[in-house]
Amino acid sequence: MVKEFAKEAMAQVQRDLQPNISVPRLGSLGYNVKDLFDSGINHVPEKFVQTATAQEAFIPHNVTSKGLQIPVIDLGGLQDESRRGATLAAIESACQEWGFFQIINYGIPPSLAENTHKLAREFFDLPQEEKEALARDPQNPVSNGYGRQFLTSTNSTEDWQDLFFHHLLPLSIKQKDSWPSKPAAYRETMEEYGAEVLKLTDRLLDVFDELLGLKTGYLRESFGDTMLNVRLNFYAACPEPKRVLGLRAHSDPNVISVLIQDQVGGLQVKKGNQWVNVTPIPGALVVNLGDSIQIASNGRFQSVEHRVVTNQGAARLSLAMFRHPSVDVDIGPAPELVDASHPALYPTISYAAYRASFHRKGVNGKHLLPYAISRP
Ligand SMILES: O=C(O)CCC(=O)C(=O)O
Ligand SMILES: [Fe+2]
User: Fold this and answer.
1) Ligand 2 centroid to 231 CA: how many Å?
2) Per the database record, which ranges form the Fe2OG dioxygenase domain (predicted)?
3) Closest residue (by CA) to atom 4 of ligand 1?
């Protein structure tokens, strides 16, 4: 299967090649978007080409949508009595209206986030053989390692993205030996950054408790022992950005995701029927809520569909860290948020089952919640 795929991609690449451009190294994975772009192709192989309808919904990575902007929140305001109320209100509105916000003054040294991103970016510049020495098991959707195509759906079109995925918590699945060993500082820096993200998300969950009228610690406790993992998303520049997606539309299944993006841009969030670019802000982190929070909050907070578009000029690397519930817990609406006038909008189901459906049934370019819950 993989071999046939590789042969087909190779044939397409050869058709696309300009005279005098050498054939990219395709490796045992079949191919990767970095080498495809570096080979100088003018057209993307068919496997990546979106349907005509999907192509009509393309919005370039660098336009600002009229009047629409993901909220930017100064978390420093939570420590300042005079600004606390306004900061809480801004977080509440972002969680209700967008499911996404950017944060500044978030209590992690921006240099640590920047350095973690830089080391992750350097990994993708290693020779292909070195990256593939850490290849993930393509049959196991949650295995650590380098690879392609994390999200699946009935649409078999491929995303214009190479990736590295690995766990940080729980320790039983961390497998630090499978993390990038080059650049040399990667593992230690990622651990340090991961510990900070854990603290940051603890703080945000406590704020969400307060906003939802839940007792402090409710969300953290109800989600059990945290599972924390990271995906390094490498989007090569692309000769035909209008015809592909860097990452298909999806919502995250987990509790909360914290993203370091660079200054290239390409992340888009769905607001009503419109795709809105998340304009990069130096030093800011992007936070988005996952389906587990939408479920726990009984729909008061939103987990919103997002996608990534590519561009012709520059490669982009994003580092997405995902805080999940434990696979041992059930997720469901908080009992305090369910009453006669607010019936439970979602059944209580095991997170293991919910997450498995994310990987098994795929995302199909639409919000996972109704999909997963209508077919538990
Ligand atoms: O690359 C991005 O900006 C978004 C990545 C993302 O949505 C994800 O990894 O789930
Ligand atoms: Fe995502």
Assistant:
1) 10
2) 223-325
3) 267
